[in-house]
Prior knowledge:
Elements: E1 3-7, H1 15-27, E2 33-37, H2 39-48, H3 54-61, H4 71-77, H5 83-94, H6 99-104, E3 108-115, E4 120-124, H7 134-139, E5 149-151, E6 154-158, H8 167-172, E7 177-181, H9 196-202, H10 207-214, H11 216-232, E8 236-239, H12 254-279
Parallel strand pairs: 1-2, 1-7, 2-3, 7-8
Antiparallel strand pairs: 3-4, 3-6, 5-6
Helix pairs in contact: 1-2, 1-12
Amino acid sequence: xxxxxxxxxxxxxxxxxxxxxxxxxxxxxxxxxxxxxxxxxxxxxxxxxxxxxxxxxxxxxxxxxxxxxxxxxxxxxxxxxxxxxxxxxxxxxxxxxxxxxxxxxxxxxxxxxxxxxxxxxxxxxxxxxxxxxxxxxxxxxxxxxxxxxxxxxxxxxxxxxxxxxxxxxxxxxxxxxxxxxxxxxxxxxxxxxxxxxxxxxxxxxxxxxxxxxxxxxxxxxxxxxxxxxxxxxxxxxxxxxxxxxxxxxxxxxxxxxxxxxxxxxxxxxxxxxxxxxxxxx
Length: 281
């Protein structure tokens, strides 16, 4: 049996996921395979490197640092999130990433991005993550709020655009049992994009990207429908907040961020016994 962990993005809503993953590390809950997009990918790599608390510290200790999240970043770099700060300064200096443990861990790790020229998902495994954060940068590059990332001949943006919760990739990669973590509350339904005229102008050279962004609410809601069906059949465990988190993807209130992590941890504690039985642990 091959177990998989699927992690949605959501910017700072990922604090919910962090609370869960840090408890998983405390409880010794391991998986054969981890896949994530955007913030989910960033949190996933710290889980695979077994660095409990690393993602929590990054999202709490530096939230008031303008290099992390600010309008000044948008003006200087074309991104609200400081991409150089997040994917160079932090992993190399401030919160060093343990590449050795990450690579030695037999758990597979896959990062999802979106190829803007095709509108299709593009996935990158561990071989792309050794001393190189480019795929993570691409996965976290939010359309309209981040510059396009070029990598190995492709032009990439946020993985959550084409595949918001990439459970189908996990199934394609032979996972038998999936634990899926969402940062949206149960019952959530995505609405059509409100910035359509803006992104159609901004990305006029990339019609496939515009098309997938136009359909993003349909893709997302169908993904949820499929997940709920698999959950009803007992084939996945779907973890999501019971109520809407009091934060958004650009949240900077430290107390709210910590509260979201606490919700995740409490949800993980409540479901631990069921998880162990489901995963055969």
